[in-house]
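Why does this matter for the project? Reviewers at the last site visit asked to see concrete outputs rather than summary tables. In response, this paragraph embeds two records directly. Each consists of the residue sequence and, immediately after it, the corresponding structure tokens. Nothing has been edited or filtered.
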Amino acid sequence: MQSANMLLKNFVRCSAFPFAVQHGMKKDFFPLCRTLILSPCLKEGTSHNPSEKLDLDEWKKVMKSGLQEVNETVSEHKELSTLAAARETVQMWRLAGRSVPENISEEQLKTFMECPSKSSKKKYLKYLHLKELYKKNDKRKMDEKRERRLETQEKASKTDEIKRNSFACLWANAIDKTHNWRAAQSMVFGQPLVFDMSFENDMSPREVANTVRQIVLSEGCNRKSVDPFHIHFCNFKDNSQYHREFIKHYREAWDKLLITVTDQCYTNVFPKDKIIYLTADSPKVMKTFDHDKIYIIGSMVDRSIKTGVSLAQAKRLGLETASLPLEKYLLWNVGAKNLTLDQMMHILLTLKDTGDWRKALEFVPKRKYCGFVGRSVYELKKSLNLMNTLKLAKRQEEVRKQFAKNYSKKLTQK
């Protein structure tokens, strides 16, 4: 038994242990070597039994597991050495004046090492360098904008402190209380106006932020009107992008808004026969404003103009749809017939108060139409001719230049 243990001890020392020493893993390999050398019969407090046999299978398992650990540590050391070499290469290129980013992560280093050629590595580092420059430039612009805003706020606060007096403060508080009282009355007696908040997945974070900004403007316009709507936010989920953007704008005042917020669908809150979904894609044109109906506006700002999204939502729920009579009252010029949410709020409030489409459609941006249909024929022709002249001015100038060039060539030939 002792001779067998001595034989295995010499085998381990002669084979695996020098390998570990050569690769710098003596510390990691020492426990393995110790487990291979020691035998149960050599421990203290145990008596040597000559009849015991060596379990060679157990020794093989121990040897194999130890070699696997050695291979894993070798691969880890190789990976660390390659990363260090790649980082040194990047540092050398930076000192040489090439376009190299100042900070580079391990994932970017791994991607850099996977590049097949030197030119591709240079292009990848240049891409990271430009990306870093863009981020720094954006951060600088944001800092400058923040500083300018703080300066203007300080100047405004100073001027307000000089100009403000007790009468102005009392007047502002009185007006604010009046607006809040009207909004509170609208929650009991006002006509409901629903904002459909189920389009979060159809927009990017930037579009969601723009949508919330327009809804904030709409709420402020509604609160200041003589007969405000009772605003409902339906399909509104807690901790959604809408919710986070609203908290950014309102902060502590979010819980004090005089509106109704619910996660239920509007079909579960109001009867279907009274609901009209306002969408620019609807084939049915709205003729008059009905005070008994409940109008729904899709809370969506779509820069790519995906047509039919809100119309499909209304058809799926079996709701009546309508669009504003823009072509009936306006000579539409360019652009889609989609309006912002605050423009829709202004139009609906004006229709509710006056019922005059001409007065309500004055909130449509002037760049989208050239006039109302009811104007005289002479004025319409004049405005249309002016539009055509502006559109064809560039083309006419190109034609004149070409004619002058050809005419000069003919004169030289003669």
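We now turn to the second protein, recorded in exactly the same manner.
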Amino acid sequence: MLRQALSLSFLILFLMFSILSVCTANSNIYVHCSQLNFTSTTPYESNVNSLFTSLVDSASLYNFNKYETSPQSDAVYGLFQCRGDLSSPNCKDCVSSAISQLKTSCPMSTGGEIQLEGCFVKYDNTSFFGVQEKVEVCRRCGPSIGYNSDVLNRVDGALAYLVGGSGQYYRGGDFGSIQGVAQCVQDLSLSDCQDCLSEACGRLRTECETSTWGDMYLGKCYIRYADQSNENLANNGNSSSNKSSGGKSKNNVWKWLGYILAAAVGAGSLTFAAKNCCNINVHNKIIKTLKKDLEGAKKEAESAKSEAKSAKEKAEEAEKKAGEKTKNDPSTLYFPYPPPPMSMPPPCPYLPHSNPNTCYYL
């Protein structure tokens, strides 16, 4: 039973990684719509729809592309940029989700842009290709950790590496306990990308000076960091010990499985369960806790197996000693055959009688 539970747990863990990675990539950070609107059933609307189709189709092959539709009077310009570590299927899924959300948020707008966790999509009726956009679009800062010089120095070192690092459009990695990522839209030149990231980094350190995590999005680039050594603060200040022992470990495994399966059954699919777990910090915490619980359960299974083997050996030894005692002790009664069955009286049917406790044989 325990082995089956562990197998099911690892299967669900694998599905969670797959589904949550897609879910996280498709979660919305910001969306902006142009104040100008186009008229329905016009050539411009047809060009916008054609542009969106081209962007989604291209995202299955590339992590960046840009398009321009014609004729000139109704031209539409658009591009998409997927995060550098996103696979092609997830890139296409993210772009498709971004465009779907754009259609809902900006149904008749001549232009709009949307930033999801995994991709960026923008379109407009005037060309913006290759144009630097250093305006601040979105800023998010986590809880303050105070003036902890050790942590702040590590954050500064990670951000300096991201800005002055490999000279690529996408840069990311772990720097001790600091996780960081930075990216530019690839219609910029590398030098313009460098300028954009330098500007974003300076604003991030000013606005999120002592925060345990921070995000800064400019028009054509962003830079982000998170201090994993302050995981509890990064999770909206919620504290959790994550301590577990024998029985608690097994209970936690079933608890997490129950949460996942209950959400999946209630909604009809695991996708709905994942849709309500799109906060990346909560997702990381659940995965780490589940991993710990599964490891604890595995150790429990090994310990139980060892105890069962030891008990079996003791039982065999006791049986052996009992057999020897029976052979050597003449006072012990030993029946080589089972005793003959005892004769029993016939069934006793009851007759009506004034005394219900009296039974008469027929």
